[in-house]
Amino acid sequence: MSTALPTQTQPAPPPVDKIKVRVNGKDVEVPRTTPDPVSGKPVPTTMIQACFAAGAIVPHYCYHPKLPVAGNCRMCLVEFGTPAVGPDRKPILNPDGTTKVAKSPRPAIACATPLTPGMEIYTDTPAVKQMREGVLEFLLINHPLDCPICDQAGECRLQEYSVDYGQSASRFVETKVHKPKRVDLGPRIVLDDERCILCTRCIRFTRDIVGDEALGIVNRGSYNTLTAYPGKVFDNNYTLNAVDICPVGALTSKDFRFQMRVWFLKETKSLCTSCATGCNIVIGSREEKIYRYEPRENDAVNACWMCDYGRLNYRWIGRSDRLVEVRNPKAEGRRQSERWAAAIDEIAGKLKQAPAGSVAVVASARQTNEELYLLAKLAKALGAVTDSVPRTGASDRLLLNADRNPNSNGARLTGIAAEPMGSNLPKIAEGIRSGRIKTLIVVGEDVTRHGLGADLLGKLETLIVSDILPNATTRLAHYLLPGCAQAEKRGTFTNTKGRVQKFMKAVEPPGEARAEWDFLRALALNTTGQKDAVSIEGLFNQMAVEIPSFNGLTWAGLGDTGATVKIYCQDRGIDDTEQPLTPTETSNIQHRTPNIQSQGAREKPAGATAKI
Amino acid sequence: MSEIHSMEPIPNPLREQPDFAVPPDIAAEIDELITHYPKKRSASLMLLHAVQERFGYVSRQAVEWIAAKLELQPINVYELVTFYPMFHRAPLGKYHFKICRTLSCALGGSYKLHEHFCTKLGLDPHAHGAQTTKDGKFTVEFVECLAACGTAPVMMCNDAFHEDVSEQRADEILGGCK
Amino acid sequence: MAQEYRQILKYVDQPGYTPDIDCYLRNGGYEVLKRVVALPPKTLPNGQTLSGPEQLRQEVMASGLRGRGGAGFSCGLKWSFVDRKSGKPIYLICNADESEPGTFKDKQILYKDPHQMIEGMIIACYANDVHLAYIYIRGEFAEGAKILNRALKDARAKNFLGKNILGCGYDLEIHVHRGAGAYICGEETGLIESLEGKRAYPRIKPPYFPAVLGLYLCPTIVNNVETLCAVRHIAALGGAQYAKLGTPNNTGTRIVSISGHVRKPGYYEVEVGKATIGELINDPIFGGGLREGRKLKAVIPGGSSSKVFKAGERFKLKRRGLDGKETEQEVDMLDLPYDFDSLIAAGSMSGSGAIIVLDDSTDIVAVLANMSEFYAHESCGQCTPCREGSLWMAKVLHRLTQGEGRKGDAEYLARIADNIPGGRTVCAFGEACSWPVQSFVAKFKEEFVARGAADEEHRAQQGTGPAAKRELAASPQG
Fold this sequence. Notes:
- By secondary structure, chain A is an alpha+beta fold.
- Chain A folds into three domains: 18-124, Ubiquitin-like (UB roll) (Roll), CATH 3.10.20; 144-318, Alpha-Beta Plaits; 336-493 and 505-556, 3-Layer(aba) Sandwich (Rossmann fold), CATH 3.40.50.
- Helices cover 24% and strands 19% of the residues of chain A.
- In chain A, a hairpin with a 2-residue loop joins strand 16 and strand 17 (289-295).
- By secondary structure, chain C is of the alpha/beta class.
- Chain C has three domains: 21-244, Rossmann fold (3-Layer(aba) Sandwich), CATH 3.40.50; 258-359, Ubiquitin-like (UB roll) (Roll), CATH 3.10.20.600; 364-462, NADH-ubiquinone oxidoreductase 51kDa subunit, iron-sulphur binding domain (de novo design (two linked rop proteins), Up-down Bundle).
- The two termini of chain C are 31 Å apart.
- The mean pLDDT of chain C is 95.
């Protein structure tokens, strides 16, 4: 039995040992230790973290908060001082009684230098600026300066810091070092070694986070060159994260390259729907077209990574065969604007007349919490049997979950899914076969593939279907209600660990397609007279009051990164473990991307292949 | 497809050596070397030396064999072969002359010595990298400091040091190479 | 009058002396080790008891021994930083990567008296509770590696190495590890990475101080060949007695490698600070002076990384007289005592103890170009300023030697060099590659400017073609 337990108050965490330092004259207090990004063990907090806490800008290339420190780019050099100590080992005081600080004659890299009590860090002195200028010049002398055709333009750290610290003219008159360009590193990645600044972020990510020793540096000195082993394809399921963290345009995504200048992209906070992990993403879109998914940082879920499988699973949203028209047998010839209202009216009329037990509901665990909540309530009022469809695939120990539904826990918590999920489907089939079930509502699933074949569906008096793409079920529907991809609406999902997270609307739905929660609310109103909230915010808040598991949550309170509810599973007990994102057994990491055949590709037209 | 979209494979400067096989004596030596270290990876350089001493160069098959032996990925070994100049990715001549190019030897006439060898052997006196004669007998290479600066100019013929090498001495060395 | 003081080189080059263990034993070899492992615990007046190893460490501290590899850091202090409470094994690595241009002293020891170094190394390991140690020898010393392997085998056979050494219950194993032609492996953390089977990228410090997080992230001591030999002599003499050699804070003996434009290039062991640079260059027992008709132009005093001294340069030095009073004295470069502190005070360093002499036939621009080519070739490429700066400087200097200079190149070079050292890089290679450029360009600026100006003029008159190429220096036979 899977139920939710009310969120319990955690025991107060032990007091954090703090350390006080001064950044550019501003006092800040930061924890003495910070968890290591890979091992999770406490390691001394470094200067750069104190600088961030103080709001001081420290430019950097190789440093990345989620990766082991390399300290090679030297862009984050700062000046610093420590309390002066006399021969008696006691601090030397200034005339005003304050501790005298002795400025170090040498700079330090902020990314790797641990804080010591009373340390003073200076990030804006002329010497620091001059050092940054020097490093930047060194990085640019052999750089191709091909910004006009570079995909990174607009989100390139070389460009950004050149504006801040660069010189207007180059004094380099020597010949540049030439390196391989357009190297086909793997199925999804192209490498331009001339743009590479050798920060090793991609190497560290791939080695230390993914557990795949795929990338390395060959040759020596200025001729150092990033590469994969000749003949070995860089194709683990996380390669595109290397593109994200590449601070320059060296690694580019084959999927995105030359598609769109990034500054034209609208960014929308959303969620990946390809598995139950619920990686937080940013959708990049322009003029109602989606160009890319990128991971969005959420330490409770995906740190700042996502798998290639999920990332590339977006093209189906823009497919030309999307369901864009309401189908209503009696609505032929009606004006478009009237079709939705007529369909909802007619469906409601039929449901009102349906005897208890004659209706069944199959709702996808890809629908949102709000949609499943509305359907569950409606089903309860109708005395309908309900279920969802389990969907599984291979998992890795990083992010890809075996549960390929983004909202299985939502389906469980709202009561739509049977336990175990899918176990009611044979009962529904039997009900239709016996003639007891006469009306079937299907939201977001092709039930012909899950035991409710065309022969069974043909026996129904009324088949009401909502979906996004055409399939065997939609073809048989009496009423067809075109729905929305997550990118086209707002809502929440509950991930595998009980994290309730919301997503925002990036693009307009095509044609007559309409957010499911919106028309389900209308359907419930017309059928049962129940008045649900008219906004997604209101609907979520209403659900949070009515469903015990969600008690205490509010739409606003979810923020950008969500809130965790407790999930009780029979076999695991309370699962609220939030482990650091670490490959515990690297051999289990999926080194190849599973075929993308999630929402988009599953019911693809014959002949089309999912190409990535 | 436009030119800009065309892509190239990962450059591969490693030679193929289809008949690569580690003979038992080297295999035994390698197994012994690995025991010298608490972590196998440490033995990388020693294994590369052992393989190169036998075959004269480090091939793709050798890189992959060493990686497997040390439970590493080939890239780990490939990174080393390209970093340490003593490892060669192509067979060299039977006699490998390394002439020191660095300051004390340069002051002592090593550029002239290098030129002398190159001229005698029909190689380019201005090229600094390893050059091998067509018959595969000699390789001449300008290398950095060999730590014998007091007896400049200094060179090595394979593993043997030759110090205070005049042109006459150079000719004797050449003459001694059968 | 400065004299040689052959302590480490006592037997080296003596007729009949061979690197065999028997020869070493006949000349008192391993006697110090036998005494050391038999040292009983000593109780101090305050009741504290010092074990044998602790006493040894105290002796090394008292000896004032400074590392002979290049940095001149106190050996006793280095040992004192070792984290002895981590529960992890402590490693010792002998740095036999001798690679600083101009230096050829360790090779003499390794090839001609290897057991002296091995005995010193065993003593150092015993003093630091080390049970596994490595000799990292540069790849080109293939013959040296063979000699060492033979010596280790012989020492093992006589139970100076291995299990239960000389019955004292102490175990130690030493292995030879060969480098493969990378200068950067002389940097101790680069050496450690190389020994771990990786590219010799020096580690960032903090946090990777070898004494705490060295080989396999365990506490590690890296000592130079000559330093370890000195440890043997300290163990033999006692720290206080050893400290009487040399001068205060610059104790003991060290081997100076002299090369370049002198009549008698070679290695000479002297008490530290007891001979001046001038004596080392000119005395008949040392360098023997310049060639006939030549005058001194410059001296590179401590390996090619050290800042150059120009002939006639004068420095103000603080000197403590016999009465203990400190006086300031202006001295000619040649009168600088060849020790650690005087050379640092004069803005350079004694580094690895390698003096390279340049006479007035030398083309300074070509010399710097030669050195810069070395550094560009040897930069590991890990961190930005060194990776990009070392090759950039080499390219500029190459241009200047090819008749394609510009008047402004001196300034241009200096500005590139200024962006590399001073803590901007991961390791001291940043200093090593930029100090020569900074000092050559500053001290011989007129030559660089004149070269560039001449090239510009030539191009103006002749079109764009380069001016004539020039020789590095008058040939040694000339």
